Amino acid sequence: MAVSTPTALRELSGVQRCLVEIRRMILAGDLLPGQKVHQGDLAEQLKVSRIPVREALAQLHAEGLLVHKPNTGFTVARFNSGDLADIYLMRRLLETELIRSIDLAAVDADLMDDILERMDHLRPAESSEEYQRLNREFHFLLLDPSAMELVRQEVSRLWYISGFYRSLYLYEPEAPGHLRAEHEAIVAAVRAEDVDELIRVSDAHRSGTERLVVQRLGRGRER
Amino acid sequence: MAVSTPTALRELSGVQRCLVEIRRMILAGDLLPGQKVHQGDLAEQLKVSRIPVREALAQLHAEGLLVHKPNTGFTVARFNSGDLADIYLMRRLLETELIRSIDLAAVDADLMDDILERMDHLRPAESSEEYQRLNREFHFLLLDPSAMELVRQEVSRLWYISGFYRSLYLYEPEAPGHLRAEHEAIVAAVRAEDVDELIRVSDAHRSGTERLVVQRLGRGRER
DNA sequence: ACATGCAAGAATGTATACGTTCTTGTCCGC
DNA sequence: GCGGACAAGAACGTATACATTCTTGCATGT
Fold first, then answer.
1. Which residues, in sequence order, are CB contacts of A21 under 8 Å at separation 6+?
2. Among residues 131-150 of chain A, which lie with CB inside 8 Å of chain B?
3. What is the pTM of this model?
């Protein structure tokens, strides 16, 4: 095995690497919703046999990121606006509970600001992947202190499966400004340790992005 | 291929059969929480190679029914009372939304009564598996008419992963009576098309079972 | 020209086989 | 007698190989 493997992935199993990589491809739009997922190609790209690829695909299928048709294979899940409404509804309900369960004093607001700072230096439309990663990190800095493991895991899943669609609104020219203001309001509420206000601004932020995503979905033509 | 394969499973793929069977084993308590899941044994039992078994296990892992440790294999997930609290919390939030989204006139209350009737003729402690199946069918007769696909799928998952623990309270002598009364209240609210009342009695039913499950969990000694 | 059927190719699904890692029981040293 | 190293065995993880199913393009007939 050559020197080229990124250190972080070196000691992961084949299945793990496949999981991480295929998820990334879908979120980054390398694999588009509705598109067929070719096991042989992935195996070749990831330099493993089809066995670990298939196990990763099975997991992503269970997560809801892929659809499976017997003897035909997997395709990337396509969500219509109703599906996205379901996802955002679940996020609202579950994230609200997470926020209520957290001791806001335990949240690292400085680090959150730090991430916002880094996001400022990025043009979302050009570094979508990095921007998304930071965005996710920002929001989970808030949610991670919660002790409700299973709820957090589910919220995490909801983020993943809708990641590609969420990335769409980043291309809206007015998006970064809105996001910045809403993110600041979130940090401010954290600093003030005002739970009700935090829930209010989080809801506003979530609804705002949902509206943009659904708009964009409509403009992307049907389904 | 001999004649013995149950007709319903004949045309399912190996992975599908493994999924159904392994899930059943866990819910039925053939595989207990914390117990190791032996791939070779399962493959032999299910008359397939380890490949489809592993793909099924990967899916059950993603569903949260199994835990995986690299190079050591899978074990059945163990939930402590906090985990169960998370599950019941999520069920309450999501099932409430499902109920609100349903046209109660579209629910087949007669069929629900029918199932209650059949449950009456069973001693839960003796036919746990069948009783659980009917119980699940009863509740999803109510929830299935909802158009919120993804929410329903998630509620379904929450039922699955906690199925074994839910089965525990069936052994409580006072359980059948409580259940019967609560189930009747649910059907009555459906017939009256009284959403608020339906949510109220559903909450009561859910909290009641949660309390019994956690009690039982405590009596089962730690974790 | 269009629909239908068929054959070649490709992709999936699974069995077998093998290398690697972990577990377990034993032996050695303290 | 007890704890730790070591070796044998078992179990996991994955590559290879093959059977089955699906897709696709062409030929055939209407």
1. A46
2. 147-150
3. 0.91
Q: What is the mean pLDDT of residues B70-89?
A: 96
* pLDDT for the residue numbered B220: 66
* Per-residue pLDDT tens over the stretch B188-197: 999 999 999 9
The reply to whether A94 touches chain B by the CB within 8 Å rule is yes
Q: What is the DSSP string of B33-72?
A: TT-EE-HHHHHHHHTS-HHHHHHHHHHHHHHTSEEEETTT
Which residues in range 87-126 of chain A are in contact with strand D, contact meaning CB within 7 A of any of its atoms?
none
Reduce the secondary structure of B91-160 to three states and give it as a string. HHHHHHHHHHHCCHHHCCHHHHHHHHHHHHCCCCCCCHHHHHHHHHHHHHHHHCCCCCHHHHHHHHHHHH
**DSSP class of residue B196?**
H
Higher-confidence residue of B202 and B177: namely B202
What number of other Cβ atoms are within 10 A of residue A223's Cβ? 12
Q: What is the DSSP letter of A104?
A: G
Residue A187 burial by Cβ neighbours in a 10 Å radius (0-12, 13-18, 19+): buried
- In this predicted model, what pLDDT tens digit does every residue of A161-209 receive, in sequence order? 999 999 988 888 777 788 899 999 999 999 999 999 999 999 999 999 9
Asked whether residue A70, judged by its CB, lies under 7 Å from any atom of the DNA or RNA strand D, the reply is: yes
Residue B6: pLDDT above 50? no
Reading the block at residue A201, the tokens are 């601004």
* 8 A C-beta contact, residue B152 and residue B144: yes
Confidence at B175, pLDDT banded by 50, 70, 90 = confident
List chain C nucleotides near protein: any atom < 7 Å from a Cβ: 11-17, 21-23
Give the strand order in the sheet containing A36-37: A36-37, A73-76, A66-69
* Cα gap B187→B142, rounded to integer Å: 9
SS3 B73: strand
